[in-house]
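Shift notes (night). Ran Pentatricopeptide repeat-containing protein while the centrifuge was going.
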Amino acid sequence: MLVPPRLTRAPLRHASPRAAFSARLLVPQGSDADAKSDASASDAVVRLVAAGGSSLEADLDRLFPALSQCRGLVASTLRALTDRGIPAERFFAWASLQRGVSPSPHAHNLLIENAGKLADYRAMSRALALMSERRICLTDRAFAFLAPSASSRSGSVEDAARAVLRALNDVGGPCRASGVFSLVKALASVGEFDAAVSVIEETASKARHYNVLVAAKCKAGDFVGAREVFDEMRRTGCDPDPNTWNYLLGCLLKNGRLAEACGLVEAMERHKPGEVPNSLSYEILTYHACKAGKMDSAMRILDQMFSANLTPRITMHSAFIKGYFYAGRIEDARKYVGDMSTRDRHSANRNYSLLAKLLRKSGRAIDAGRVLYELMEKGLRPDHSAYVKVAKDLHKMGRGDLASELKSMFQRFNAQANMGR
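Came back to this:
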């Protein structure tokens, strides 16, 4: 067994340029040409589709040998047809029968967009029925045509949204649920909140639908608007879920409204005991505390989280490590990853590897190597890219002895893996 190296335990800030990791030396895809080809083929197809006529399918068949080599043909053609206001249903039906050109789920959504742009809701219903039959989910891309133009009125968007909802209700099937959610999301993304609320009210009100609106308001920094949606949820009998509360919490903290955020956490505990604060709530709180350099407050929140028997996600550990590191508290970062290797062992590999990466990027390759060495001493394999980069940096600075030492330790894991086969 190796003798534990004395300098491995030394404080990082005092690392000697000639420090050793141990007490003794151990022996050891798409190109521009493709894009141009796709665009050229798409233009040829669009011209044929625009011309129409009874021979369209035969004309497309004659082009097929060249078209089959264009991987993005269907999607690019659908977008071009929609931009030019040309119906795409006939082309889509032809493409669905061709081997090597069959439409993807994304292409099905583009077909819905095409029908919506032309206000052809019968064609939309047929496309929806096809998606339902094939069990393909709708995305908000299908409803991108609802974005109001400079010349359109909000009322016309609401009318179009109601027409879409009627089509979804008529077709039903597996795609209706994804369709309603995506419709609400598309409307919220373009600021059509009244239309989105109308859709929610005409369907079974669900927290995930309202959460789309809350998230959009919070993203815009409109806490008052987000709170109005929150209150509307409760008025209609739709109970906010943990995500709803967490959106509001994140919005307050992002905008520096700490006192209100603390009040909201207390409200969470009163209204949803045992559900919120949840692990994401604690992560939001610690992230903003770490970002503000309030590391002691962040640590108290972490302790409270462990007391509630909740396990931190790796992103939460990253916030602590980076918070300490960028505040110049390197030893505290080292202590944190060491403590967490006991309290949350499954995160140890990534925590140590992250600290090593940060040290290496700051020009402290020897300290980075020491961190990786300590990790391997615990019987844990470091991130491979971190190990390789640190070893290369050590070689560049003339410390091949330390690089060899790391390599020797790392090779043990490969040997163990081979023995287990």
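Residues 1-10, 23-31 have pLDDT under 50 and may be disordered. DSSP finds 21 helices and no strands in the chain.
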